Amino acid sequence: MPVCEIDLKVGGKYRYVWRNEDGREMGMGGTYREIVRPAKLVHTELFDEARYAGESLNTWTLTEKNGTVLSVTTRYEIRETRDEVLKSGMETGVAASYDRLDEILASARSAKR
Fold first, then answer.
1. 3-state secondary structure of 49
2. Is the C or the N end of the chain the one with fewer CB within 10 Å?
3. How far is residue 14's CA from residue 54's CA, in Å, rounded to a whole number?
């Protein structure tokens, strides 16, 4: 991840750029709308080369249920955009990212013991 810029405050902006093995990059960013530490984060999201109209509004919530549970809700401005994103196969990459996060957190818990 060659770019990871975060101004974590309401109205603050963030920007991420990922680079894959063959050098192609994918960038995105947005603005933080609501921050309730440590339980909730609401932000906009727009990819540099979005193949759909408008930006999304993402709400992340953390709750305790036999450990910490992350719930993510993504809302799109247009129903057709939501449908297009769901058909894109993006859940494969998202699932891989969350699986990797689980591994990192498990490793950190093991290291503390």
1. coil
2. C
3. 17
pTM of the model: 0.84
Q: What are phi and psi of 51, to 5 degrees?
A: -95, 20
DSSP state of 20: -
Query: In this structure, how many other beta carbons lie within 10 angstroms of the beta carbon of residue 46?
Result: 14
Place of tokens 């930006």: 55
pLDDT at 34: 98
pLDDT single digits (tens) 26-68: 999 999 999 999 999 999 999 999 878 889 999 999 999 888 8
CB atoms within 10 A of CB 101: 11
